[in-house]
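User: Structure tokens for both sequences below?

Assistant:
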Amino acid sequence: MRFHETHDAEKKKRLKRTAGIVLAAVLFLLAGLCVFACIYPAETWKYYFSNPKIEKRNQGELRIHFIDVGQGDCTLLELPDGRSMIIDGGNGSQKTELAVMRYLNALGIDKPDFVLLTHPDSDHAGSLDALLKHKGAKVVYLPKIEDRSINAEYAEFCARVEKSGAEKRVSHAGEVISSQSAEYPYTLLFLSPKTSDNPDCEYNAVNDGEYDETDVNDCSAVVWLDYFGVSALFTGDAGKSVEEKLLAQAALGVLKYPNAPAFELSSTEILKVAHHGSADSTGLAFFGYLNVKTAVISCGKGNAYGHPHADTLKNLERYGASVCRTDVSGSVMITVSPDGKYNVTTQKE
């Protein structure tokens, strides 16, 4: 009889200890949630769940993330000096907004150093309003386009920039961002649009009041990035006329800027294909001038525009470029190492 009493007493003690552990865990979880709620407003909680799994960046690596935002563009640069840049933000749908914000949180980026809107199209400006509202930015590069009524997304972006307190800069050729680390030097150079004092400035066609979609696309910031000899070109929706101007400048030897180191556009190995691979961009002459080994196309699955166009894919194939498409492979990450090599990984490998 004493055996049963002892056994029951020990069983009760175990149950009591278990209940205490469970209660402590619940209280700890509640305390954690309270702290989380104090730091992060309730409207942002959705950005911290179901985040993508992304391995930590190694010392000295530069990473380029082409985020899958459906029919739109969003590129994230993790620079080797610890800074970051967002180039465009997708179309502003709830799905896209979640994708962008969760990607940033997965990388632990609380406040991007640079935000660049290449041009006003809604499928580029869309989610930047939410990004600036909840994370802010140190510096925002924006197009010098006065008509904010081009679309609602551009108007919201411009209004949010004013509220954000970020430093505002206009995208134009010759603007340079250089590494803050002597050990890991990189150069990020704006090649287009031209400066506003140039009569051939791409902004003029839009700001003069009569313009079409091509004029707006040609205002896209075109940015060249180099890290230990690996070069990448980001093109927004710039069309063939912009490509022809860059080629003409390169041929004349005037594609150089006083505050930038010497560079060769023809060394470009990584290309963010312009305008989602449409037939209006990435002409054969331009692509033939570059040295592209990896081409990335950001577009939505089954999109209504037929992107990417068959002719663009043929041009890429003709010169032997490896093509990554977000509509096929999901988000694409390119990691550039200080040894001058890079590798490509995709979400749906």
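Moving on to the next sequence.
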Amino acid sequence: MEDLANGLRDVLGATSIAGLVRLSGGASRETYRFDADGRALILQRQRGGYERDMAIEVAALRAAAAGGVPVPHVIAASTDPSALGASFTILTAVEGETIARKILRDERFATARAALAGQLGTAAARLHAVDPAGPVDFPVDDPLDGLRTTLDRSGEPHPAFELVFRWLQQHLPAPRPQVLVHGDYRLGNLIVGDDGLRAVIDWELAHLGNPMEDLGYLCVKAWRFGATLPVGGVGSYHQLFEAYEAAGGGPVDPAEVHWWEVLGTLKWGIICITQALAHTSGAARSHELAAIGRRVCENEHDLFLALEGHW
């Protein structure tokens, strides 16, 4: 920790670094909290085995902030590993809760839960309205081909996923103009206070795509964490869609959002495979990554429910 503290001092030009502690969570990032000359900050450092350019995440954060999306502000960032041992971003610390279980169940968040679905619709509309032009070219993700390639490379047979690939291809929605999307828009990647949404975090999957991708992923069954309401376990489709449209996000077709829910469930299932493989291959040894691999079957079950219309 001493070497990391010294590196942070140099990067920030700070006199003192205090309270440096590593936080739990984060499959693609090492996350630390610390004070620099009395200011609370967050360091996110890229983990081994994760190759996505961190400059994309930083550009997305800055674009989102300019568009009025609540996000932590970028203090410093670099893809040069010489300063802190890996690509990094240093952000303002936003006070609040990220643990979905607490947000969904604790009494102190009762007011926040009532407002959150609408706040997330508004934030998504603001994000999708930003100009993505900037210092980096955001990747353009094909919603099916990329997942197809990733699953094939894993070398693992998953007949349930093959069935869903076929359904998705047969029910492709009409294309929309591409916008900047978060790519992992869900409970767990939000900081929530007593009053509701305080920040959207974890932008490493940001890319250009269909705006309905973010709305659909927010409604994926896994991200309800056992609660019954479809929007992150806190609200209804109507609350989300109404707020999105009122904030200028354009018309929402519920059937199209359902398509993205199904794709989002498939996506999370395949991510579970790849994260487990990062552990078993030795690229990034982690109990968390290994445990995530056990969740593949949950997504297969959820996909059967989705195709039968029971979720």
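User: Anything stand out in the second?

Assistant: The chain has a mean pLDDT of 93.
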